[in-house]
Amino acid sequence: MVGRKKRKGNKTVVNVVLGIICFIWLLPTLGLFISSFRPAADILQTGWWKVFPHQEWKAGETLQLSKDVDLREPIEVNGKTYSDDQLKAGVSEGDHRLIWENRRARTINVQERGWEVKPNFTLDNYKNVLSGKEYKLKLGDGSETVQKGTGLSQAFWNTLTIAVPATVIPVLIASFAAYAFAWLRFPGRKTLFVVIIAMLVIPIQVALIPILKDYTALGLNGSYLGIWLAHTAFGLPLVTYFMYNFISQLPKDLFESAFIDGASHFTIFSRLILPLSVPALASIAIFQFLWVWNDYLVSLIFIGNQPNVQVMSMKIADLVGSRGNDWHLLTSAAFISMLMPLTIFFLLQKYFVKGLMGGSVKG
Amino acid sequence: MSLLLVLLLSFTMVLSACGGGGNTAKNEPPANNQTGGNNQGAANEGSSNENLSPLELALKGEYKGTKVSMFGPFVDADQVKFENSIKEFEEKTGIDIQYEGSKEFEATINIRVDGGNAPDIADFPQPGLLASIAKTGKVIDLTNILDQDKLKANYNQSWLDMGTMDGKDGKILAGIWNRSNVKSLVWYPKKQFEEAGYEIPETWDELMALTEQIAKDGDPAWSIGIESGAATGWTATDWVEDIMLRTTTPENYDKWVNGELPFTSPEVKRAVEIMSDIWMNKDYVYGGTKSIVTTAFGDAPGPMFTDPPKAWFHRQGNFITSFFPETAKVDEDYDWFYLPSIDEEYGKPVLVAGDIYAMFNDRPEVRAVLEFFTTGESIKTWVQSGGVIAPMNDASLDWYSSESDRRMAQLVQDASTLRFDGSDLMPGKVGAGTFWKGMTDYVSGTASLDDALKQIQSGWDN
Hints:
The complex is a heterodimer. Chain A is elongated and about 105 Å long. By secondary structure, chain A is of the alpha+beta class. Chain A folds into three domains: 2-35; 53-116; 153-360, MetI-like fold, CATH 1.10.3720.10. Chain A has helices spanning 2-35, 40-45, 84-89, 124-131, 153-183, 189-199, 208-218, 224-247, 252-260, 265-276, 278-294, 297-302, 312-319, 329-360, and strands spanning 54-64, 75-77, 80-82, 91-93, 96-102, 107-116, 134-138, 144-148. Chain B has two domains: 52-180 and 353-414, D-Maltodextrin-Binding Protein, domain 2 (3-Layer(aba) Sandwich); 185-351 and 420-461, D-Maltodextrin-Binding Protein, domain 2 (3-Layer(aba) Sandwich), CATH 3.40.190.10. In chain B, 43% of the residues lie in helices and 12% in strands. Chain B has 18 helices and eleven strands. Chain B has helices at 2-24, 54-59, 76-93, 105-114, 127-134, 148-154, 157-163, 190-195, 204-217, 234-247, 250-258, 266-279, 364-373, 380-385, 403-414, 422-425, 428-444, 449-461; strands at residues 67-72, 96-101, 121-124, 164-166, 171-173, 176-182, 185-189, 314-315, 334-338, 349-359, 417-420. The longest helix of chain B is centred in the N-terminal third of the chain and has 23 residues, at 2-24. The radius of gyration of chain B is 25 Å and the shape is globular. The relative contact order of chain B is 0.16. Mean pLDDT of chain B is 86; it is low at 1-9 and 11-47. The chains are: A alpha+beta, B alpha/beta. At the A-B interface, strand 7, helix 5, helix 7, helix 8 and helix 10 of A face helix 1, helix 3, strand 2, helix 4 and helix 14 of B.
C-alpha cells in the first residue's frame, strides 16, 4: 500500500516536471503563434501577452500646468513636487498615476487602472505571406499603382521538388550500402566503413567552394539535379551509419535460410531487409527531410535565389525586405513553413519512436 | 513488395525529374577572359556597325535572345522597383537580364566568385567589398570597355574616382555607379515644425541653439537609434563621417578611410566629441542616451510622427523614408534639411552611399547591359517611384516625383565635396567590425572615448 502510494507520488512529480518542460518549450511557439495574428503596429509596440485581459493605466482627467514651468526644476502638481524624470516614467499617487500627457503643452494626465480586454487580431500577415505583398509604386505622372508580389506557393513547390528526392535518394543508397557493410564480406569493408563514418565530422562548409567549382565546370549550378546531389552527399554518412546500426542487428538466421532457399542478395534486400527496416527508414527519412526542408546554406550556394528555383527558407528571408523593415511577416511565414514538417512528423510518428529505439537498443 | 514498388517508382521519378531539372538549368558557358581589360568584344563585328557602342547595337536588336545574369542585394520591394526599371530595356533589346537578389549578398558573392560561378554583373552596395575582389584580378577593367569621354560627361568626377580601384596589375575602373543614396540629411516633421515657429538651422550653432530651444519647450530634439542586429552601430559611424567631413579637409577624410589617419588622432576625436554634445545629453535625445543602443534604427524615426511629435530631428539617409508610417506624406508631413556645416572653410560636403555595378564576364551583351546602366534612363522609373537618387548627369531633375527627392539630387549635384560612406570603404574588419562595435561601446557607456577609439583603431592592426 505504502509502496503504491509512493509510486503514484513519483508519477505526479514526473508529470509536473514534464509539464513545466513542455510549458517552457511551447511558450515561445505560442507567443509566435499569437503574434502572427496581430497587426504589425501592435507587434512593434507591445508584447503578445497583452492580447489577454490585463490591467492597464487608462487616460483620465487632464491637468493643465502653467505654460512657463521650467522642466529642469522640480515641478509642482496639486501641491506636491515631482521631478521631470518621475513624470516621464509615471508616478503613482494613491490608486492614480501622474504622467505627462503633452510635455510641450505642460499637461499631465491622471490615469486610473482599468481592465483592457480588446485583443486586436488580423489575418493580414498570412495574407501577405501566402498571396504576396502589395507594393505601392509611384509612376512618372504622380499616380500610384499597386503591384502584387509573389506568394509562397512557387517556393513551396520548389522546396518540395528539392526535399522529396533529396530524402529518397540518400535513404535508398544508404540502405544498400548499410546492407553491404553489414552482411557482405569484401576486402576493405572495415576501412571503407570507417572512412564513411569519419565523414560525419567534416563540416559541410569546407566543401562548398570546391564543389561549387566542380558544379560550374559541369553546369550543375542552379539546377535541381545539383542540389539533390549536394544534399545526398552531405546526408549520406549519417544515414548510412544509422541504417547500418539497424540492419546489422537483424537476426542472421533469417538471411541464411533465405540463402539456402536460393535467394540472391537483391531478393534478400528487397523482400526481407526493406520490410523489416521500415521503422528505421521512416525515422531517418524524417530527419533528412527536416534537414533539407529547413536548409538555407546549401540552397543559397548551389541553387540561388532565382524565382523559379527559390526555396521557402530564402523566400521567407526575402519577405522582410532589403532592410528588414517587414520582419513581422516572419511570424506567419514561420508557421506556414512549419506545416509540412509537422504533417510528415505526425504521419510517420509511430515509426519515429520505434526507429529511434531501433538504432540504439542492441541485443 | 508494395514498398519496393513505391521506392522503385520514386526512383524512376527522380531520374526523369533529373532530366527536366538539367534542362531548366541556366548553363551559360562561362566566359574565358576574366582577367583584365581584354578588348576583343564582338562590338566590332560587321563593318557597318563599327562605330556603334554595344548599347546602340543592343538597341538595334543585335543581341536578341541572349541572357545576362545579375546578382545583387535588392530583394522584395527594391527588387520589384529594379525590375520595373529594366523592363523597357529588356523589351527593346530582347536581352533577358536575369536578376537574382539575395539578403546574403555580401557573404555569397565571394563564394560565387571563388567557385567560378560569378554572375555577369554584380551590384555591390559596399565598394570595399568590390575593392577586395578587384585585387584578385577577377573583375574586368572597364577602362577600355566603356567610352571614357561619355562616362566623364555623365558622372561627377568624384564618382569615377570612387569606382577606380587597385586591380591585379595597376589601377582599374572596377565598376560604375547606378543608384545612390544621400546621407547628410536631417528629417523633421514639417507641419508641426512650422506650427511651432521653428526655423531651419543654417549653421551648426543654430542647430545646437534650436536643439536647446526644443529641450526647453519640453521635447528632446533628436531621435536616434543604432540597433541593427549584428550590424549595430552603423548609424553612429555615419554621424562620425558626416561630422569629419565638416571639421577637417577631404584629404584628411580620405587618409582616415585608408587607415593613414588613425582613429586616435585629434581630428577623429574632435568629430566624436561634437557628436557627443548631442548624443550624450539626455535632454537632447528621445528616451535618453541609454536608449540609443537599444532602439532599432528603423524604429527610431517613429516618435517624430506622433501627434504632437515626441522628437523633432532624425539624421539618416534618404532610404529611411521606407520606415516612415505609410500615412505620412513627403513635403507635407515630413521633410529634410541639410546637416549644417560646422567649420565654414570646408564648404558644403555631402556624404553619399550607393551601388556600384561590376562586370565579371566579358560578352558583348554584358557590355551592352553595363553601358545601359551608365545612363539615367536605366533608373528612371525607380527615381520616379522615390527613394533613390540617380548619380548620372543625364538623369533629369523633372523625374523626381517629390520636391524632397529633387532637392536631394540638387544637393548632390551642388556639393562642394562628395564623399562615400567611409565605413563601407574601410576593410570589413574595421568598417563593419571594430568601428561599429567601438561606437556602440562608447555610446552605451562601457568604454571611454579614448578607449573606444583605441579599440576601433586596433581593427587596422590585425
